[in-house]
Amino acid sequence: MKKLILLQLCLVNYLLSCGPTAIDKAPATSYALEIVDSVQVDFLGSLSLYAVHSTKDLFLFHEFRQNQFILTDKNGEVLSTFDQPGDAPSSYGNTACSATFVGDSIVVMGRQKLVIYNLDFDYIKSHQKPYAGQGMTYSGFDHLHKVNIGDETNLVAFTGGAQHPVATNQEDYYNHFNTFDLISLDSGGYVPITPLHPKSRYKQGKAFNFIRPMFQVNEDKIHFVFATDTLFHTHDLSKAENGLTVEGIPFDDFILNPGYPFRGSEDYDTPKPRKGVVESYFRVDEKDLILYRSGLSLEATPPRETVSRKEWDEINARLNPLKFLVREAKGIYSEVGLCPTNFTPTYVDGKNRLWARQHVELLDQEPEFYTIYQAALVPQ
């Protein structure tokens, strides 16, 4: 009898250990980024895509050197341009930080004011920023998103730094930090929103420079990541309290900047590891695409003085490549993928189309047209 019981126990143990069980975790999905379409613009100059009007298939480009905006259709035909001097009354200034479409209006955020134009770049109105600019001035990033709160159209904006006037090496800066401003298109009011989460590494007793989010707005939710952090954030604007939640991003590797003591300054002279950085974030078809570089240890970083700048860049690109993760659901992520070397995604529009910059520096000769690619996430 004892032998029979022992045999039964062994059989059960064998079935549990060798057969499929309810707690087995499905293997992670792998993806590739592939080109599916393109738009070509007959323009001599270096353009950056700032916004896409998804309904009308209009593309808003900016040329940095000339501080010029160009509006095209999907065929690349130029429909209108804006190249007034920065001190013109109808201008946004000398720097176009970001832009977006709101209906049939173009909204451009400069360093100190927000300007609204029609599709022919005729001036409609502007709103002055009510506080002095803090931190870095970022140009060409997708830092302006439309959101509807009740019956009012607002913009969620990252203006380069928090509204709090204290310096970034002071503890009060982090205690009063706001990631975004909520801008009313009607009144022009700037309301600070989205404080740092208690689990944020920027709330752990150290100072940091250049805290920058990458974000997307989906109805009344802001999804975002910081460039030098490993948390995925969601801010539900419909909740008055506890609207900000976080979860860890399972990077394969990510070297964190340790920060520096309050009231001090960052040491740029001592050799340090190359920190990890999230370069882009997009929300595509209810999936979250995160592009990042893991960083390089001090031992793996090539000595700068022994090679040319071009060789040093090539070595770094090989040792510290641009990778991506896809967040498929809360806490569920894909395998790590390698980004293609001939293009980099830069923008996602309202139709979930992912637009990418062509790496013209890799071409054998100067192209006749400026080209942006439409890319897609393809399961493997």
TrEMBL record:
Superkingdom field: Bacteria
Signal peptide extent: 1-22
Keyword set, alphabetical order: Signal
The protein's name in its UniProt record: 6-bladed beta-propeller
Taxonomic lineage: Bacteria, Pseudomonadati, Bacteroidota, Cytophagia, Cytophagales
